[in-house]
Amino acid sequence: MLNFLKKKAALVWAKKHVQKAEEFKKNSEKNQEKLLLALVDTAQKTLFGREHDFENIKTVEDFRKRVKVADYEDLKPYIEKVKRGQANILWTSTPEYFAKTSGTTSGAKYIPISKEGMPFQIKGAQSALFHYIAKKENADFVKGKMIFLQGSPELEEVFGIKTGRLSGIVAHHIPNYLQKNRLPSWETNMMEDWEAKVDKIVEETEKENMTLISGIPPWLIMYFEKLTEKHGKKIKQIFPNLQLIVTGGVNYEPYRDKMEELLGGKVDIVQTFPASEGFFAFQDDYTKEGLLLLTNHGIFYEFIPLEEYGKPNARRLTLKDVELHKDYALILTTNSGLWAYSIGDVVRFIDKNPYRILVSGRTKHFTSAFGEHVIAFEVEEAMKSTLEKYPAQITEFHLAPQVNSAEGLPYHEWFIEFEKEPENLDLFKNELDDQLRKRNTYYDDLISGNILQKLHITTLKKGAFHEYAKSQGKLGGQNKTPRLANDRKIADLLEIYKF
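RESULT FIELD:
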């Protein structure tokens, strides 16, 4: 009876939520400008606001003139003041949390999350689930157990500000009505050793009625593989009532085939786009690709055409100016005190009514050693099309330039860990090269102009990417190996795992 009532209540809440969401979908452009001016008005008296003349910002154009695009290094002096306990620096209040992320040039990054910003992190995930329930008219999963593969919820304090991984912070805000159904145990979630943690999660969940599982694809796969190895069964045989997988962090498509094989039966997938800086988008239409951009969640968005990113006069576009099927660097201004902040993600609009995006890459993850500027979306789509023509299964891959070729012209080198190799690797390689040439005209020109030779594939032993991540201390949590790079730092370390 209790489960019936929970299911009924979830359906009612979901339908009301989706009806209410129609308003922001219809008025995104107007609401975005209002939001920016409201954020500026709130922060007028902050140190950042005084230094950037917020008092005289009346339009989006005024904002662009006074506030330049910033990365973490630009905002770091302000964040250091906040870390030392100073108030009214980037935002009117001291952050409720710091989300600690790993950086490259900056070391660890401390992303502020204000008391105004934190609720939207939770609402984004709730909205994704409510849209799913309403569209499918199915809330059966609320009757079973749910698991969130995430980082440790243990938080440290930096001058009184609670600090930890975003997934660990969010663990403290799971609604009460989900807590009784939630796994793993708090003690297991606190474990830092990822392999030991997943083993313990398997132990705690293998006999439960699992109905919802959430996490980033590589770690879902690791969890599922351990279950199948232990039981000799597909996941749907182990968890017959598993209804929904919620995933985010990386593009799901390259993992789809592997996931479907492990699952061994139909499970609905909802893709999301969360980050320490905010919860940006989720999948609201399950018949096609694309994530609904959340334009009413305390974040003002700007978009820089990718080919202009990093240039002095790069255009900063708002929603009304974007074009479909073009790549844009994502720039954020948030109610946690990030101002024209370049998050490093690249997005592509596939719909404007409402605004839906694909995450097409990272501004720092590309290959352009020869001027081709190949991005993640292009290599992932090329791989997807190749796998459709020459069936195989991949665990993971990484693309790097080989400038100093031992024989002939330079080339792109693809390090691929196959779960199941194609019958003919040469045909597979040629098809992959052709598919990439179709998606990137610069790469095509370099091949046809005899500046590059066709790509090379280096096959890696099973478990290679797992071992690489472990060797770098990047196993588990939200860590993932970049799919491509503009140098050979990762490639050189993967060399030891080749056949």
